[in-house]
């Protein structure tokens, strides 16, 4: 074969190899899954923990492996204060923090959810989260590089301590763990208690060591967080709603292929229905488990005692109105039918 033909054949071979290599790399890249790190601070067997696992299952199945969701529960990666910064930096892609934790981002309106006795039941909550106010609050997150995707229920918080709590004065002087929330702190001041901001992961060891005297937790977290082992009394005050926002790094979300984003939106809708369905059931089951353990006396306040707690805490609404926004607060009152009377 003439030298010229040999050179052409070699060149064609090289080009074919290069093209084949690029094709392999392209196909491999297409097969590489999109990884979503989903971090949260509570146990896997809580309503939130179970819903995150359900979202993972749906997302991976419906995307046929194009999406892989890595779940990190129990503050394995980040504690309460750290996780939002990690999300903004892109170190994780999804979180489900409690609503009050979004306030330190500069969106103080989310603290409205922490106002005492604002919601009588889950229906009242959903009129806010699934309505105009819910959409408005999520829109405020976008300037922070975060996109809100869904609201998830948990339950209603109750006070615990090693002394019986029947009237507001019983909390006088007690060091009560709270989330980082100005509203929660004001609630403690109104009751004569001393607010102690702690990450959820630190609650049990702090109770065990006597660093704090009590908590305000929903039954699910009270049980799965082991607080029932070191708290002699739990009083069902139901003074504050605890819910979560499922949020995602906005740049990551916007860069997703549109079909993948649609799959994730559908998976999250179904996970939200599932989570809101099991929230009440699981809190009821957790409360039954606390009673069965025999280490904690569960007390149901009389109507008069509950009215006394509400009366003691109602001034918090007025003190927080300017911080949260009076117009927004009035819209929430309208949606929930809230009345500033016991």
Report on the structure:
The protein is an alpha/beta fold and 342 residues long. It has a single domain, classed as Bacterial extracellular solute-binding protein, family 7 (D-Maltodextrin-Binding Protein, domain 2, 3-Layer(aba) Sandwich), CATH 3.40.190.170. 50% of the residues lie in helices and 18% in strands. It is built from 13 helices and nine strands. The strands form two sheets. Strands 1, 2, 3, 4, 7, 8 and 9 form a seven-stranded mixed β-sheet that branches. A two-stranded parallel ribbon has the order 5-6. Strand 1 (34-39), helix 2 and strand 2 (67-72) form a beta-alpha-beta unit. Helix 6 (182-191) runs antiparallel to helix 12. The radius of gyration is 25 Å and the shape is globular. The N and C termini lie far apart (101 Å). 42% of the residues are buried. The model is unreliable at 6-19 and 21-29 (pLDDT under 50).
Task: Please give the structural blueprint.
Blueprint: H1 3-31, E1 34-39, H2 47-62, E2 67-72, H3 80-89, E3 94-95, H4 122-129, H5 132-141, E4 146-161, E5 175-178, H6 182-191, E6 194-197, H7 203-209, E7 214-217, H8 219-224, E8 233-249, H9 250-255, H10 258-293, E9 297-299, H11 303-313, H12 315-324, H13 326-336
Parallel strand pairs: 1-2, 1-3, 5-6, 8-9
Antiparallel strand pairs: 3-8, 4-7, 4-8
Protein name: TRAP transporter substrate-binding protein
Pfam family, one: DctP
Keywords: Signal, Transport
Q: What is the distance, rounded to the nearest whole angstrom, between the alpha carbons of the first and last residues?
A: 101 Å
Q: State the CATH superfamily name.
A: Bacterial extracellular solute-binding protein, family 7
**Which oligomeric state applies?**
single chain
Structural class: alpha/beta
Order of helices and strands: HEHEHEHHEEHEHEHEHHEHHH
Low-pLDDT ranges: 6-19, 21-29
- Overall CATH class: Alpha Beta
What percentage of amino acids are in beta strands? 15-25%
Q: What best-fitting shape do the alpha-carbon axes yield? A: globular
Number of strands: 9
Biggest sheet details = 7 strands, mixed
Radius of gyration: 25 Å
What is the tally of helical segments? 13
* Averaged pLDDT: 90
CATH topology: D-Maltodextrin-Binding Protein, domain 2
Keywords: Signal, Transport
Organism: Crenobacter oryzisoli
Family: Belongs to the bacterial solute-binding protein 7 family.
Protein name: TRAP transporter substrate-binding protein
């Amino acid at each position: 074969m003439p030298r010229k033909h040999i050179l052409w054949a070699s060149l064609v071979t090289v080009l074919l190899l290069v093209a084949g290599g690029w094709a392999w790399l392209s196909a491999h890249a297409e097969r590489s899954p999109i990884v979503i790190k989903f971090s949260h601070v509570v146990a896997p067997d809580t309503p939130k923990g179970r819903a995150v696992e359900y979202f993972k299952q749906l997302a991976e199945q419906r995307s046929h492996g194009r999406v892989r969701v890595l779940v990190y529960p129990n503050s394995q990666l980040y504690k309460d204060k750290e996780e939002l910064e990690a999300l903004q930096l892109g170190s994780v892609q999804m979180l489900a923090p409690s609503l009050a934790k979004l306030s330190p981002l500069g969106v103080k309106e989310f603290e409205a959810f922490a106002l005492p006795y604002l919601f009588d039941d889950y229906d009242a909550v959903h009129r806010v989260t699934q309505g105009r106010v819910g959409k408005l609050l999520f829109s405020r997150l976008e300037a922070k590089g975060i996109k809100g995707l869904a609201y998830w229920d948990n339950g209603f918080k109750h006070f615990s301590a090693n002394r019986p709590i029947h009237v507001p004065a019983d909390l006088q002087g007690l060091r009560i763990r709270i989330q980082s929330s100005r509203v929660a702190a004001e609630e403690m001041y109104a009751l004569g208690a001393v607010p102690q901001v702690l990450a959820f992961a630190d609650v049990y060891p702090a109770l065990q060591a006597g660093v704090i005297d009590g908590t305000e937790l929903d039954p699910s977290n009270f049980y799965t967080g082991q607080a029932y082992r070191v708290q002699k009394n739990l009083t069902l005050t139901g003074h504050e709603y605890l819910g979560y926002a499922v949020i995602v790094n906005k740049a990551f979300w916007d860069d997703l292929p549109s079909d993948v984003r649609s799959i994730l939106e559908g998976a999250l809708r179904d996970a939200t229905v599932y989570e809101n369905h099991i929230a009440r059931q699981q809190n009821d089951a957790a409360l039954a488990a606390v009673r069965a353990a025999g280490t904690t006396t569960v007390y149901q306040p009389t109507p008069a005692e509950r009215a006394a707690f509400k009366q003691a805490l109602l001034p918090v609404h007025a003190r927080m109105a300017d911080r949260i926004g009076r117009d927004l607060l009035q819209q929430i009152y309208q949606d929930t039918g809230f009345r500033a009377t016991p």
